[in-house]
Amino acid sequence: MPNILVPVDGSENSLLAAAHAVALARRHADLRVHLLNVQPALPRHATRFVSRRALAGAREASGRLRLAAVERLLRDAGVCYESAVLSGDAPIAAARYAREHDISRVVVGMTRKSTLARLFTGSFANDLLQRVDVPVEVIAGGKPGVLVRIGLPAGLSVGLATLLLAVD
């Protein structure tokens, strides 16, 4: 049975990737979809006053909240799936999950950012491509918000201007 992985962060892009997974499942009846949410690992100094059990519970609850809409979409479509919540660096955790669960394809939704925005903010899909040995199918989502479209270039301009003034 082929397995595909859909990383879920709770965004509209995750829903687009899940809708694509539903379309794939309709064409391949034996397909199994794996949904994965990766919660960020917190620095040790931020977690030293919280019990491990409480921290694990909070991560699980946050991850399940982000998975809920995508799980509902797959359940309503009658698609066989399983879901998991992990913690750590998202691309590393997703690649490890893909290896451990015999994933044959990854379907990821991605915001349409400019190359400059990707350079400074990073890209989960690009990082994942570096770590997996299976095809990664990228589903193009919507355009980024105003803050990324305007704020990043404005921030770079201010930073460059400050650097130029400091050099003189």
Description:
The protein has helices spanning 12-27, 44-47, 52-77, 90-100, 115-121, 124-131, 146-167, and strands at 3-7, 32-39, 81-87, 105-110, 136-140. The longest helix has 26 residues, at 52-77. Helix 1 links the parallel strand 1 (3-7) and strand 2. With 168 residues, it is of the alpha/beta class. It contains seven helices and five strands. The protein has one domain: HUPs (Rossmann fold, 3-Layer(aba) Sandwich). It has a five-stranded parallel β-sheet, sandwiched between helices.
Considering the chains and any ligands shown, give keywords for the structure.
single chain; 168 residues; alpha/beta; Rossmann fold; five-stranded parallel beta sheet; 7 helices; 5 strands; globular
Largest sheet: 5 strands, parallel
| Gyration radius from CA atoms, angstroms | 19 Å
> What is the CATH architecture annotation?
3-Layer(aba) Sandwich
Count of helical segments? Answer: 7
User: Portion of residues in helices?
Assistant: 55-70%
Q: What structural class do you assign from the helix and strand content?
A: alpha/beta
Shape: globular
Q: Any idea how many domains?
A: 1
Write the H/E string, N to C.
Answer: EHEHHEHEHHEH
| Corresponding CATH superfamily | HUPs
Distance between the termini: 65 Å
Strand order of the largest sheet: 3-2-1-4-5
- The average pLDDT value, as a whole number, equals 83
CATH topology: Rossmann fold
Share in β-strands = 15-25%
What is the CATH class name?
A: Alpha Beta
Show unreliable segments.
148-152
Note the quaternary state here.
single chain
Number of strands: 5
